[in-house]
Write a structure and sequence with these properties.
With about 230 residues, the chain is α/β, with parallel strands linked by helices. Helix content is about 40%, strand content about 25%. The longest helix has 15 residues, at about 105-120.
């Protein structure tokens, strides 16, 4: 999963990044609220971890901005020294999904992240996906359309799985790049565009057939679902 962390203490940020990277996530750390907001406007993330007390834009304002401008559904976890009941209630009532008081404990933090991700993205646990007329077998690495197997390269298959698991959700090119190819600066984002084009063509993704890949200029792609034509 692709995670963003707001934490103004470099040592604490490095610690959280290490824990979550070792847990298998692609982790992006930011030292200021403005930086998180700037990146969130350009990139998609699966979960945000926010500190409250940062020097420029406090975590609560970042929380409210994310909920009003980015997504009402993406999980947001607070990790902060503020431990009063009033603070916890304020964060939760303004859109936070969970709250951890520092010092964070590694296993508890990871368990809370896992729980939030399971609730937000339940299909990540599934090994078979059904989106008629498509049937996707994750373990066998194949996609059937109306019972017929579609020939895809491994990366095309992985990309198709990410799109179907996130149907209706806007995903940035960077998000797709990290999820399918891993975190590397060597991959040109044109590679993402080329593979999306191939997946669209091979699966015949268009409104008349029930699904359509919609490009969003300067951001990424969203797979939209429609009622298939009779």
């Amino acid at each position: 999963m692709r995670l963003a962390i707001l934490e103004d203490d470099p040592d604490q940020l490095a610690l959280l990044q290490r824990w979550l990277t070792q847990d298998g996530h692609d982790v992006h750390g930011y030292l200021s609220g403005r930086e998180v907001m700037m990146r969130a406007a350009r990139e998609s993330f699966d979960l945000f971890i926010l500190d409250w007390q940062v020097p420029d834009v406090p975590g609560t304002e970042v929380l409210q901005w994310l909920r009003s401008k980015i997504s009402s559904k993406v999980p947001i976890l607070f990790v902060t020294v503020r431990d009063s009941e009033q603070d916890i209630v304020f964060a939760l009532e303004n859109g936070a999904d969970d709250y951890v008081v520092k010092p964070a404990r590694q296993n508890e933090l990871l368990a809370r992240v896992h729980a939030l991700l399971r609730r937000a993205y339940p299909r990540e646990e599934e090994t078979r996906l059904s989106f008629p007329p498509f049937e996707i077998d994750i373990q066998r690495g194949e996609i059937l359309r109306a019972g017929a197997r579609i020939e895809l390269t491994p990366k095309e298959f992985d990309l198709a799985v990410v799109l179907f698991r996130n149907v209706g959700r806007l995903l940035s090119r960077g998000h797709l790049q990290e999820t399918v190819w891993g975190r590397t600066g060597e991959l040109n984002t044109r590679t993402v565009d080329t593979h999306v084009s191939q997946v669209r063509k091979k699966l015949d993704l268009r409104q008349e057939t029930g699904f359509r890949v919609v490009p969003v200029y300067n951001f990424g792609y969203r797979l939209e679902q429609f009622a298939a034509a009779a």
